[in-house]
Write a structure and sequence with these properties.
The protein is of the alpha+beta class and 692 residues long. The protein has 21 helices and 22 strands. The strands form 5 sheets. Strands 2-1-5-4-3 form a 5-stranded antiparallel beta sheet, with helices on both faces. α17 packs parallel to α18. It starts with a helix and ends with a strand. It binds adenosine-5'-diphosphate. The site of adenosine-5'-diphosphate has 23 residues, from α18, α20 and α21.
Amino acid sequence: MVRKMIEDTLKNKTDLIASLKASNAKLKTEIQERKRAEKALQELVKTYQETSLKLRTLINAMPDIVCFKDGTGKWLEANKSMLELFDIEKVDYHGKSDAELGEISKFYQEALLNCQHSDQEAWNKRILSRSEEVIQKKDGSVKIYDVIKVPLFYEDGKRNGIVVLGRDITEQKQTEKAMTRLASIVESSNDAIIGNTLAGIIYSWNSGAEEIYGYSIYEVKGRSISMLAVPERPNEIPQILANITAGIGIDNYETVHLRKDGKHIDVALTISPIKDTQDNVIGVSTIARDISDRKQVERSLEQLRHQHQLILESAGEGICVIDIFSKISFVNPAAAKMTGYAIKELVNNDWNFIMYGGETNRNTDRISTEKNSQACPVRTTLEKGIVCQVTDEFFGRRDGSFFPVEYVSTPILEQGKITGAVVTFKDITDRLAVEQMKDEFISVVSHELRTPLASIHGALGLLKSGLLNQAPERGRRMLDIAVANTDRLVRLVNDILDLERLHSNQVTMVKQTCNVSELMMQAASEMQPIAEKTGVNLSVTPIDTKLWGCADRLIQTLTNLLSNAIKYSSTGKTVWLTASKQRISQNQVDNSHNLTSGVPGDIAVAPACRINSSYQVLIMVKDQGRGIPADKIESIFGRFQQVDASDSRQKGGTGLGLAICRSIVQQHEGQIWAESTLGKGSTFFVTLPIFD
Ligand code: ADP
């Protein structure tokens, strides 16, 4: 029993030990599992903490604003950007509402309340909402945020929280604004602003371009910019595009473009490459300014300048422009020609070169006199702005000689200030010669008039005195002298008046078609009585041809020649009046344009006879008289020119007949000359243009 008891007790103990062992093993396992679970939990917490830290770091590093709020609008988490925005970095914001934070950060109170208000709207809408929030910063700047609000709800529909995300789009907005402004500038520009690819394909075209070229954007988009080139410049645009590709821009390049209506327009181009952020050329910007008006003005100005140039260059008067220091800044060709200098020798040189005959030839006496007395009119113009006119000056030539001039110096005034002078001068050598000739003529005329007057006066004086009352024969002779001199006086006065009228074109020549034959016959018949009286034969061989002229004046010419021929022939001799038709060589016709002198062989052609200018009539008056010395053969055509001083007395001539003849013939575009052999006779030739 005891043994049984012992055995039972032992068994119980063994069972207990076994059960204790089992419990112990289980406990161990449980402890191990718990430890593992704890470790796992610890790792999870660690991982969570790490992730959370990373997330927070990440969120804080974000430039965007981030904020989590609970279902009542209280702040749970916010990133650095959000806190900075509202200036609450140092505030413990957790669990505080926007309104409460607004109380703390007063400056941003309104912005925070607005935020709270828009949270409510997001919750009410129950969906993601997006809006632009404008926040005024303390430094005066304005920030614009693109804000997204995501309301969160529990399953039962109650508010869980709200996520607020915002991106600063201030710069983007400013860029957009700038772009809009730029676009409106481009659009409102009067210049054509064209965007095209490097291949020249147009992709943008503003209203200025529409205005200038006449195409709308729809007509040009996708087409090549070469459509604007004029056919005469086919390589221009490809060349420009090549330059742009090489990075070479073009500034204010003036060219001609083609409008839609086919008209050419003057444009100034500024072409620049369009580059991407990596500085690669990706396109071309072409700005074209319509410069047609300016070009037109330039062309007009150029035309005007050219015209002025032509006027100055073709002016017969010398024109010099001098500056305030008497330096020549301009001379026209006439001035250079008159002074014998080349234009470039005068320009930039002193006015004294002309005024006083240049450095080497300067007339020092005159300079010092004029300078001392301040008498130089050009200086007076430069100093006092007075227009000076001088009629009796001498200017110097390059060769040291001087020539007579009359000149006017006019001040050049710019805004009331004298900046120089224009000196316009004329070489008056010819005029002085004419004046001298006139003086001489008057003295000759007065002498010629006085001689017969003195004779008349003497004869009449003798008769009046009664001294010849007893000598009637001498008295009659005195009367004859008086009558002869009166006739001579009348002839003289008539011839002088005739010549003067012819020279001053006061005589109206009634020109008409005349038959040369009739002219010759008429002249011969008028002279026949005189010829008969002196016993000279008059032989006439008329020619039947027509010319355009004044019959009376041509007959006057022929009668004068016949009268001379008869006058200087002795009795029994013959005077021939003949004529022949001649063909004018082309050479003669060409030369005739330059001729005025009446030199034998030179042929002039009358404008009225241009019906057929290749023929002329040659009329000859030939005598067998005393002849004319060779040295007088030309001078006898001058006024009061006679071979012998006794001719006027003996032959009753005035010495004006041939001068009158030459004047008449020249006014018929003809020539007159004489040939003679002393002692054998003379022939006077007259050529006149005829019809055929
Ligand atoms: P005048 O009235 O003196 O004849 P002209 O002008 O007709 O004037 O002639 C000028 C001069 O030419 C004459 O005075 C004369 O000396 C000379 N003369 C003109 N014709 C002849 C001639 N046929 N033979 C010689 N001498 C002539």
